[in-house]
Amino acid sequence: MSSADISVGNAARAFDLVAEQYDDLFTNSVIGRLQRQVVWEALSKAFGPGHCALELNCGTGEDALFLAKRGVSVVACDASSRMISIAKEKAARGVAGARIRFEVLSNEELLSLPFAGQFDGVLSNFSGLNCVGDLPQVATHLGRLVKPGGRALLCLSTRICLWEVFWYLCHGNSRKAFRRISGRTVAHIHGIPVPVAYPSKDSLCKAFTPWFVLRKVQAVGLFIPPSYVEEWTARHKRMVAALERLDRFFRSFPAFALLGDHVLFELERTAQ
Question: For residues 150 and 271, what is the distance between their CA atoms, to the nearest angstrom?
Fold first, then answer.
């Protein structure tokens, strides 16, 4: 078994273990809802009734359900079988007649999908692509699957998060404050090591060339803090409302777009 296979297996096992708590810890949290809303606004512009979308690392299915409610058919994939089980349960009780096909499939296994040129676009939300070892390979597979002119909305963890630097420096932890800057680290989820990469804007664009071209970049969670600050957020609701307004104003400014907790890259499939 290769190191890449071990890495994929570790990620799947780790997210199997957090699947039951994921919605409570993030999806239904104040921070989770505010950060996801930024992505949903972009999804609403990119996809509409009759479109077919591919979702990578779909987690518990929140984004797939959002798209289905808008009349979009979705093929939603995740390496975690437990995440997929929860997503199926939510879909069964959430949207009557929803056209969602769930697949237990890692981002590294996209070659096995028999849908060449059938998708109007692809979504990867909240850092799934940060756990991919070979980003150009994933881009090549997506180039096969997405129609020319189709959209790729890719939400990744950033290399520099202003909130994270500020938060951990205030708590005297410089190691965590700058843990992303090297571009690579290892997250330990329930004791399982999962390699994490933080690609720069230039390296991501290079990885997706010639299949996709970058059209827009915006911050997700620029003034809104990362999810581990949820307890503080619950005590400062007026402050959070003000921070959300600042987020909305500044998140697309080039100087700030890469400094949030996440960054949303919007790319277009070329005619290549």
Answer: 10
Structural domain that includes position 133: 3-158+197-269
H helical segments located in 70-133: 81-94
Cβ neighbours of residue 123 closer than 8 Å, sequence gap 6 or more = 39, 43, 53, 54, 55, 56, 63, 67, 152, 153, 154
| CATH number of the domain bearing residue 16 | 3.40.50.150
Using a 10 angstrom Cβ sphere, with 0-12 exposed, 13-18 middle and 19 or more buried, the burial of residue 9 is middle
Distance CA 176, CA 179 (A): 5
* Position 245 in a domain: yes
Q: How confident is the model at residue 267 (pLDDT cuts 50, 70, 90)?
A: very high
Domain assignment present for residue 133? The answer is: yes
Q: How many CA atoms, within 13 angstroms, populate the side-chain half-sphere of residue 207? A: 20
The pTM assigned to this predicted structure is 0.94
- What are 128-154's pLDDT values in tens digits? 999 999 999 999 999 999 999 999 999
* Enclosing H/E stretch for 230: helix 230-235
**Per-residue pLDDT averaged across 22-33, rounded?**
94
Q: How many CB atoms lie within 10 A of CB 1?
A: 7
Number of domains in the chain: 1
